[in-house]
Write a structure and sequence with these properties.
Carboxypeptidase Q (chains A, B); endoplasmic reticulum (chains A, B); eleven-stranded mixed beta sheet; homodimer; carboxypeptidase activity (chains A, B); Aminopeptidase; Peptidase_M28 (chains A, B); binds zinc ion; Glucose Oxidase, domain 1; metal-binding (chains A, B); 15 helices
Chain lengths: ~450, ~450
């Protein structure tokens, strides 16, 4: 604790050589808010409660409705103002049975999980021969005749990265692979999970069919199962599989965003949106994706409020649907896009330690960025030259030009758990969660109290 | 490599102060065998082949029959003599569906796996209220009236240990819990997995019903699910579950041991049995339990043979049924118990580094123990004062008085994988596997060539 305090001072003194820090919230505020946030109980309590009392909560399902009710009650109990659910409707894909077995040459079961919007097999399943592509590029390059009538299998590896950038690259196998396979006449597609672990727990995730493409059954094998299938294929005999991947699509199901506010003293100064998503994938309890994000946003807003009413309203947005296509973000923008938004920030990458801060602020706001960087440095967070991009739940705001800050979490172990049954409370590290709350609290405090005019209407 | 050689010399010199090492195999033999075994390819090849080309192989099933055929062909190809399967029959318990959900107060699915010999629910499942016992002792102490008609839930934790001793203690919840619960009138029992990981992968395992006790559905929750259920119970409302645990029992199914030999030059000197088991649990591919054990035993026997014909026959015993009650061991003893057995040794605790050697040799064999210890020391293996006990596949031999040596593997991560779907090839570490082969090869070489008369007829 002592170490943190002296670090703060050093960082702030350094910052003050270059920028008029005193124009923003006083340095003492940041240190006090940070120290209080490092003892935060709210983020853990929120995460524990949501994952225990609701559990899995796929968007547009009765479980998400329970999550919504749970969150409204919780946020009211925590003292937020203007707490409400804002309903909308959306299409829902529902998982059925996920089963696969090698019929020949070496009969055995494989563990897999259908991808969002997967086509459904009949109840009795389908049979087919596997055609193997080590990478997505190999599938793309393959003549349709080599794929037609077969089960395409793409199995490229993915390495853990601190900034999560490997997900963008390798995730293409999930996002585009199914449409490519279908367009070449495949009867189904299997991919190696977009994940960095070695457990028999597949990573699901959404994919959208390209225009005009017929949905086919699409699923991710766990990493050990994908490696097993590669070995079996390597024996050189034709490999025949049986797949049962039943699922269904429902139209116009109820979903909704949950909103809660810390009202600011200056309504004309614009709203600071602190976002996360309340929905989760169906097989885990969505602890790191994204109960912690919602816990962090709520806890940080409360830490700011405890230090005194901020100038700007802090609006916590818990989007009801992120995993399956951003319906929550679109509904929020439709309802609130014309309001003045000073800044948007989102937590949706687990709750391991924040290690970097990225900014996208308007011209003339370097002083604010510098003061935030200085307040974050004692938490071990370095400022970057990269432009902040926000997350899916604030994407329409960011696209419309709302300023954004990213508090980047360490993603090294995120893709061991992401979208698997293993995304459960025991994976959350309390000390790291609290560091997140502290980083968020000092950032929200400085932004919400900044004297600059900022944001767009 | 250099380090290993000089270590060897030092250890052997130390040993020679106390015992007539030269009466046994020459020191050069151990060093040469060890160095060759540290480059072994057979153990990996065996493990990779069995887990890929057969996969899961529950005892008494068609998969075990395929494993038997596979092993016979493999051992013949490797150059063993007298390779054959020795058939017997046994009862077989077959898993059906394993499903559980919390009906109230917080509806959500739980991940679990039926225990061996579990009773079956009807296809539509059963419903009941949970009665929670933090430890097995709490269940034992409970009045029957508090358990009757309910689903008993025992959730005591287990810590990883290098020697695996925590399994003996905490495994009682699996071995005795179901019979105790049934005798008090429970309609089912759930236990926290006997495991040290935090993945949504339950640990199954066998349990035997005590005499006169009615089988009830019995299953292990994954560790995160058990912790979730404890949290839900902690909210103080009655917790109602729906369980679907279907399974069936078959009588007199074919199983069989696989035997392969390195014939010795002196038939009167007795046989050295090197054992493992070929069967596995049904949800993983049985890589560490116990494909590696069979790979190590076979590879080590071949390393000895490469160095010259041993005095004693080395008989590799791959038992066809260990997991479900030792039918393979009993069948072997029935067929071969009257033959002269010089020593028995077994590998059935994964393939992480051997760290300790235990002996149970007849009076007057201290010199042999000392020379083996000296040959193992360069591999980082220390001799203990504990008496060797052998494993399940050689238990009848050990009970009959056959000498035994235990090469104890490091069990620190064994119970992260044991009896789960996660027991797959990717968990095997090649360098550690080779250290096992080296430890086994030097031990088998010294025992098979020892000039002492040993063993019982
Ligand atoms: Zn997310
Ligand atoms: Zn075993």
């Amino acid at each position: 604790m002592q170490k943190i305090r002296s670090g703060t001072l050093a960082a702030l003194l350094l910052g003050s050589l270059f920028t008029p820090v005193l124009a923003h919230a006083a340095p003492a505020d940041s240190a006090a808010i940070r120290d209080a946030a490092l003892k935060d109980e709210v983020a853990w309590d929120f995460t524990e409660g949501l994952t225990t009392e609701v559990g899995p909560r796929p968007a547009g399902t009765p479980q998400e409705a329970r999550a919504r009710e749970w969150a409204v009650a919780k946020l009211k109990a925590l003292g937020f103002s203007n707490v409400r659910a804002e309903p909308y409707t959306m299409p829902v894909w529902l998982r059925g049975r996920d089963e696969a077995k090698i019929l020949s040459p070496f009969p055995q079961n494989l563990v897999l999980s259908a991808l969002g919007n997967s086509g459904s097999t009949p109840d009795k399943g389908i049979e087919g021969e596997v055609v193997y592509f080590p990478t997505l590029a190999d599938l793309e390059a393959a003549p349709a005749a080599s794929v037609k009538g077969k089960i395409a299998f793409v199995s490229h590896d993915m390495t853990a990265t601190q900034d999560g950038s490997s997900y963008g690259y390798f995730g293409a196998a999930r996002r585009q692979g199914p449409s490519i396979a279908s367009s070449k006449g495949a009867i189904a597609i299997l991919i190696r999970s977009i994940g960095t672990d070695h457990h028999r727990l597949p990573h699901t995730g959404v994919q959208m069919w390209a225009d005009g493409v017929t949905p086919i059954p699409a699923a991710a094998l766990s990493v050990p199962d994908a490696e097993q299938l590669v070995r079996v294929i390597g024996r050189g005999q034709p490999v025949k599989l049986h797949l049962t991947l039943t699922s269904k699509m429902l139209k116009d199901q109820p979903s909704g965003n949950v909103i809660a506010e810390i009202p600011g003293s200056d309504p004309a100064a614009g709203v600071v949106v602190a976002a996360c998503h309340l929905d989760s994938w169906d097989q885990g309890t969505g602890a790191i994706d994204d109960a912690t994000g919602c816990g962090i946003a709520a806890a940080a807003a409360l830490q700011v409020a405890k230090a005194g009413q901020p100038r700007r309203t802090i609006r916590v947005l818990m989007a009801g649907a992120e995993e399956v296509g951003g319906d929550g973000a679109r509904a929020y923008f439709k309802a609130h896009g014309t309001e003045k938004h000073a800044l948007a920030i989102e937590s949706d990458f687990g709750a391991d330690r924040v290690w970097r801060v990225d900014f996208k602020l308007p011209q003339g706001h370097d002083a604010l960025a510098t003061s935030i960087s200085a307040a974050l440095a004692p938490l071990g967070i370095g400022a970057s030259k990269q432009e902040a991009g926000g997350g899916a739940d604030i994407a329409p705001l960011v696209k419309a030009g709302v300023p954004v800050i990213d508090l980047q979490q360490d993603g090294t172990r995120y893709f061991e758990l992401h979208h698997t049954p293993d995304d459960t409370l025991d994976k959350v590290d309390l000390a790291q969660l609290r560091q997140n709350v502290a980083a968020w609290a000092v950032t929200l405090n400085l932004v919400a109290n900044a004297q600059e005019s900022m944001g767009i209407k």
